[in-house]
Amino acid sequence: MKAIRYTGLLLFLFSFFLFLGIFFMSSYTLSREDFQNIVKPEHQELLADKFDNIIDQEYSFSIPFVNAVNGAIDENNSQMRAKQQWNKVIYDQYASSLTRAATHGLIKEQTTMLFILVFVIGTIGALMYLTPQVKLAGPAGIKNTGIFHNALNNRGWLGISIGVLLVTFYILLYFFDAYIMNWIILVDLIQKLINPGAQASQWFLYGFLYTFSVLVMGIRMIIKYRQSKYQIVRTLSVMFFQTAFAFLLPEILVRLNQPYFDFKNMWPLDYDFFDAWHINTLTSAGGLGIFMFAWGITLFAVGVPVFVFFFGKRWYCSWVCGCGGLAETAGDSFRQLSDKSLKAWNIERYLIHAILVFAVIMTIGVLYSFITGSNTMFGIDTYTYLRKPYGFLIGSMFSGVIGTGFYPIMGNRVWCRFGCPLAAYLGIVQRFKSRFRITTNGGQCISCGNCSTYCEMGIDVRWYAQRGQNIVRSSCVGCGVCSAVCPRGVLNLENKDEDGRFGEPILIGNDGIKVEA
Fold this sequence. Notes:
Elements: H1 2-22, E1 27-29, H2 32-38, H3 41-47, E2 58-59, H4 62-82, H5 95-102, E3 103-104, H6 106-109, H7 111-130, H8 133-136, H9 157-175, H10 181-186, H11 188-194, H12 202-224, H13 229-255, H14 276-283, H15 286-311, H16 314-317, H17 322-329, H18 342-372, E4 376-377, E5 380-381, H19 382-402, H20 407-410, H21 414-418, H22 421-432, E6 436-440, H23 450-453, H24 461-467, H25 481-485, E7 491-495, E8 506-508, E9 513-515
Antiparallel strand pairs: 1-2, 1-3, 4-5, 6-7, 8-9
């Protein structure tokens, strides 16, 4: 069994480093024909002399080629702005399409072979490494022995290295997608299986990698928590929703000439839902598009309060949400790194609710501009000072670069805990109008601290358990891991009548002595 695990680890590492190596594999030569086919005729005249040194010139790496293309366009724009010839300023983004056309080498010639070596062999290797744990780890039960002495799990060199790779990937994905064209081309095979007439984009690459990670690491999650039916079903749920609703269904809709739409995503997490372009896209797509728009509004306006009342915010954060799905599967190894201090809690509650307020104000501004046709509200440009900063700071930097890149440093729920406006909205409802709570049997608590250690949301669960006090916190996502790691069965996730959620007597000892408040 150990030999199988080590072999699987070697296969996985081979695929992983091959994936990284593909970034450097191609050469780039832009032909005049490709230039003329991609660049608009009115822009060709402006850029012709500036591209003379780029066309038919071979580049051995994507970064200098992309920089040369962007540099030529920027040079033209600077000249036109100096002359105040605003109609000749080029706003089209040509770097990605020109880079794809200019790419030559193994990635274009052997795309299928490289895909198999990276993803198929990588998956086989991962499963060979993970599945023997069913036997090697002994009887079913969570085993976190030595977790704080592990270079991956406790901010060691391996964890920090993975964090750096994740941060770098997200920065390239969001802001320099032309640099990673080799990786985008690598998943063309899957894109064409779903939609033969389409080419993979940076967002298709992201969706594929995201889904791939949730599925593979979901298997790990099921093996680790196989003694808990709750954890198994919950993990299967996030695997299903990520694969079917977040990845496949939107792509199938596009193939059917319908709007791209994720039926499980909602405002304010889906912060561009009320953007003018999005509203126009949906409302101009006929009955289905109008249904999508109505569904999106109904989901956050009616679905959230109703489902949270009956089940708590766990129905979304731990069973449906893609962010939560990645955190629970790929991020499970880092859940113990969440800060349990009072200082962290104070930062959390002010920051996440401030972002929710920002999201509401930004949305009001965007809707005002859409309804009135005015770009300003109270003299403020709604795009420049509201929508654009929110998209960059919250939608890109916080949710992606920090939210995932900092898994190995701050735990797996950085975004959900400190930044997600939807989590804040769900939490407000859960705190004040919900049947969900985690009950505790204080007389059985031995103060081992497992519950607090493995709470990914940074809740000091032991503090409540020692007092026999119900846990009713807006941040709790109901993952149930605190209950799963408790050796005494102290904690239980329950949906009961609202009566008794707050202000119950504290139980002390096995005899349940009541101390009246």
